[in-house]
Write a sequence for this structure.
């Protein structure tokens, strides 16, 4: 397991060693200054996507960034450590999975209130995949121009290299899970 304090120290050392201010690295990485600062202080554990962006901003691979930080091969993420994100429009996401070095995988639980459209998400890099499973309610799920309606217990898979959307057009809340393997193009 990666100690958030050790990760924060490592990020600070790498950033300072490159002569980068927090704002400069935040801009390069596409991560907010407050998030980056909280990670450096060991107060927040970044998601895989955020960690990958920070590595890109530093010009490193994720595995290089995390070299010598892995103390245990089993990573436990307690419920209290999960990222809970309240999105505009009243919907809510919880990132359930721990950060695993070199693996761009996340498992997310989302709750859409009645008549809520979460919007359209851009296509991810080729080789990206998403699995969706509906726990409760009804989900209107779109990929490209096609739209599908999924009920509780239904699931689907799609290559996530196409724009995709999620909406709840019903009168009851919709709860669904997304298991995502998101590939990101690496920069030098």
């Amino acid at each position: 397991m990666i100690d958030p304090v050790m990760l924060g120290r490592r990020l600070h050392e790498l950033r300072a060693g490159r002569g980068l201010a927090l704002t400069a690295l935040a801009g390069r990485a596409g991560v907010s200054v407050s998030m980056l600062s909280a990670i450096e202080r060991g107060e927040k554990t970044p998601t895989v996507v955020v960690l990958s962006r920070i590595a890109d901003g530093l010009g490193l691979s994720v595995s290089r960034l995390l070299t010598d930080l892995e103390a245990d091969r089993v990573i436990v993420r307690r419920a209290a450590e999960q990222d809970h994100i309240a999105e505009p429009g009243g919907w809510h996401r919880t990132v359930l999975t721990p950060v695993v070095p070199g693996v761009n995988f996340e498992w997310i639980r989302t709750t859409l209130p009645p008549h809520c459209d979460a919007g359209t998400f851009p296509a991810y890099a080729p080789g990206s995949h998403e699995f969706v499973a509906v726990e409760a309610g009804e989900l209107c799920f779109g990929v490209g121009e096609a739209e599908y309606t999924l009920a509780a217990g239904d699931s689907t898979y799609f290559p996530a290299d196409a724009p995709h959307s999620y909406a709840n057009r019903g009168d009851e809340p919709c709860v669904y899970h997304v298991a995502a393997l998101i590939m990101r193009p690496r920069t030098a």
The helical segments are 4-17, 22-29, 33-40, 48-58, 62-65. The beta strands are 83-86, 92-95, 105-112, 116-121, 129-136, 138-143, 146-151, 155-159, 164-168, 174-181. The two ends are 27 Å apart (CA to CA).
